[in-house]
Amino acid sequence: MSRRRGPWSIVASREEYDNRWIRVTHHDVVTPSGTAGIYGTIHFKSRAIGIVPVDTERHTFLVGQHRFPLDEYSWEIPEGGGAFDVDFLESAKRELAEETGLRARRWQTLVECDLSNSVSDERAIAYLAWDLEQGESAPEPTEELAVRRVPLTEAFRMVEAGEIRDALSVVALQAVELLALKGRLDALLR
């Protein structure tokens, strides 16, 4: 007995891998064209959370770290995971404080997106945070982070030049740049 998922039929499924962050499932399927096939899906156990903090001088804060899957160093907006049973804004506040030491008095949702919907169900939400106050950071023991304060225009340039490649960072920074180009960023940050 097969189950339907849109135009796909799932003949059988089995869990291949499971840890506290992800679960990988193998599916034997019938494709939309009617042929037998396979599909692997990655299920994320949290929501991806990103923050673009902006100070009074129109600077933002980037976090640098080595990313194991790519074996590359990456500059990104402050980001992490938000448990589904915790308000995503509260998770964003925690991530911002952990990684940068910053606390923001004002927040606005920038964008919600699916990060790699051909193989995963990972969904993301990014926030704009301003009216900032500096405190002490407290990264997780597994993190070795560098924090860099840069003008927003430099962050936009880094995206355009391919120096920032992390999907959530690119999407969030381009959303902020679009607000600036439309003349809405300055009014919002007042």
Explain this structure:
- By secondary structure, this protein is an alpha+beta fold.
- The chain folds into two domains: 3-44; 47-189, Nucleoside Triphosphate Pyrophosphohydrolase.
- Helix content is 22%, strand content 47%.
- It is built from four helices and eleven strands, in the order ββββββββαβββααα.
- The protein has helices at residues 88-100, 152-160, 167-181, 185-189, and strands at 3-5, 8-18, 22-30, 36-44, 47-54, 59-67, 72-76, 79-82, 102-114, 123-134, 146-151.
- The strands form three sheets. Strands 1-2-3-4 form a four-stranded antiparallel β-sheet, with no helix packed on it.
- The longest helix is centred in the C-terminal third of the chain and has 15 residues, at 167-181.
- The radius of gyration is 19 Å and the shape is elongated.
- 22% of the residues are buried.
- The model has no long low-confidence stretch (mean pLDDT 96).
What are the salient characteristics of this protein?
190 residues, 22% helix, 11 strands, 4 helices, alpha+beta, 4-stranded antiparallel β-sheet, 4-stranded mixed β-sheet, Nucleoside Triphosphate Pyrophosphohydrolase, single chain
Mean pLDDT, to the nearest integer, reads: 96
| CATH top level assignment of the largest domain | Alpha Beta
Order of helices and strands: EEEEEEEEHEEEHHH
In one word, what is the shape?
A: elongated
- CATH T-level fold name of the largest domain: Nucleoside Triphosphate Pyrophosphohydrolase
- How far is the N terminus from the C terminus? 59 Å
The name of the CATH architecture of the largest domain is: Alpha-Beta Complex
Strand pairing plus helix content: what structural class?
alpha+beta
Main pleated sheet? 4 strands, antiparallel
Query: Which residues sit in consecutive blocks of at least 5 with pLDDT less than 50?
Result: none
Helix content: 10-25%
Portion in beta strands = over 45%
Give me the Rg, rounded. Answer: 19 Å
Structure summary, number of beta strands: 11
Number of domains: 2
Total of helices: 4
What's the CATH H-level superfamily name of the largest domain?
Nucleoside Triphosphate Pyrophosphohydrolase
